[in-house]
Design a protein that fits this description.
mainly alpha; 13 helices
Length: 373
């Protein structure tokens, strides 16, 4: 898939970009000032969706050739933005440039998700296609982190140059996408649009919001809990590393899971496994239980996300697809930020936080099952 080539280059750019800015925006945060800094980070992470939601989705859907051209333009502009950041690592102008980069990143994510249904032979392949892209991004991002870290030892600016180069290559690789994916039909069936608000999409969307909320809560809960426990950043690094591996594993096995169960069942199983793991972790407590829970939550959230994306890709009219994904992504990010905010503002004991996750997913599972039609 030609989109896979573009996605791989972007994954390289994303990995080197994150490593280059880690010291400036996260890892150098002093524990005493961490909570206020993270609150600012949460606000910045939500802001791009406020920009994307009202403008980008409709533009991608309405402009002839909008999706392929958007992928090209976004990566070209991201290349320019990263180059501008090279001389501004110690300047306050770094933050607005980082904001612009986040907006461009989310715009690509929406365009990519809207493009996938036009590149697969049938709807049964949607989960497999989405899973392959996710797995590819994880593997390439992991591989790219090695040279990025080596460059980081020399100078953060060198890592940003690598990132800019990857985004530049991705912009030109996007021009190789098939032309037939560029233009969406202008005709939208009123009945089909109304069906989009039907039970399956609506209930899957609510479950996806819960899964994203759980991941956001756990990320910040575990981060601050481990600091309070004086376990050190090494434990948190291990948690993040295992979570990344779990996410890649989930992306890899999701197509196999889809062969034996529906997307709805995939969402149901994801909620059930997180609920069970969260409750057990709450009872057992301890660092090991927390690390296992965050890895399981990320894996199950990835499986649920692939199922949800497949449902929306199949049920959404092509000419309305980008704006619908923007709508759902905005809601999901709002829940992620809100859940993270709870973990930052409220200091829960580790086991209590784990139990909250288990109970929340159990409630979501009951809701999803009771509303089945």
């Amino acid at each position: 898939m030609r989109l896979g080539r573009v996605h791989a280059l972007i994954a390289c750019g994303e990995a080197s970009f994150a490593i280059a800015l880690a010291d400036s925006l996260f890892l150098s945060i002093d524990p005493d000032a961490a909570r206020s800094k993270v609150l600012l980070f949460l606000a910045i992470s939500l802001a791009p969706f406020a920009v994307v939601a009202p403008f980008i989705g409709p533009i991608i859907d309405r402009v002839p050739g909008g999706r392929r051209f958007t992928v090209f333009l976004v990566n070209f502009l991201r290349c320019i933005t990263v180059l501008l950041m090279i001389s501004r690592l110690d300047s306050m102008t770094l933050f607005p440039l980082a904001f612009i980069s986040l907006v461009l990143s989310r715009t690509y994510a929406v365009s990519k998700t809207a493009l996938v249904p036009t590149l697969v032979p049938n709807d049964q392949e949607l989960v497999a296609a989405n899973g392959k892209l996710g797995l590819l991004a994880g593997l390439i991002g992991f591989i790219a982190s090695v040279p990025a870290l080596l460059l980081q030892l020399i100078d953060s600016r060198a890592t940003l140059v690598m990132s800019a180069a990857m985004f530049g290559l991705a912009s030109f690789a996007s021009l190789q996408l098939p032309r037939h994916v560029a233009t969406a039909s202008k005709i939208i069936s009123l009945i089909k649009t109304k069906d989009l608000q039907g039970s399956l999409v609506r209930h899957a969307a609510i479950s996806m919001m819960l899964l994203r909320g759980v991941v956001g809560f756990l990320f910040f809960h575990v981060a601050f809990w481990l600091r309070d426990e004086r376990a050190g950043t090494a434990w948190f690094g291990l948690a993040l590393g295992l979570s990344s591996l779990a996410t890649m594993f989930a992306n890899g096995i999701s197509p196999l899971i889809r062969r034996v169960m529906s997307e709805r069942a995939m969402v149901t199983v994801s909620l059930a496994i997180i609920s069970l793991t969260g409750i057990i972790s709450g009872v057992v407590g301890g660092i090991t239980a927390g690390i296992i829970l965050i890895a399981v939550a990320n894996a199950m959230s990835s499986i649920g996300r692939l199922a949800f994306e497949s449902i929306v890709q199949r049920e959404t009219p092509e000419a309305n697809r980008a704006r619908m994904f923007v709508k759902f992504e905005t809601r999901n990010q709002l829940v992620w930020v809100s859940s993270g905010l709870v973990a930052v503002v409220c200091t829960f004991p580790g086991a209590v936080g784990f139990a909250i996750v288990g109970i929340a997913c159990a409630a979501g599972l009951i809701y999803f099952l009771l509303l089945k039609k």
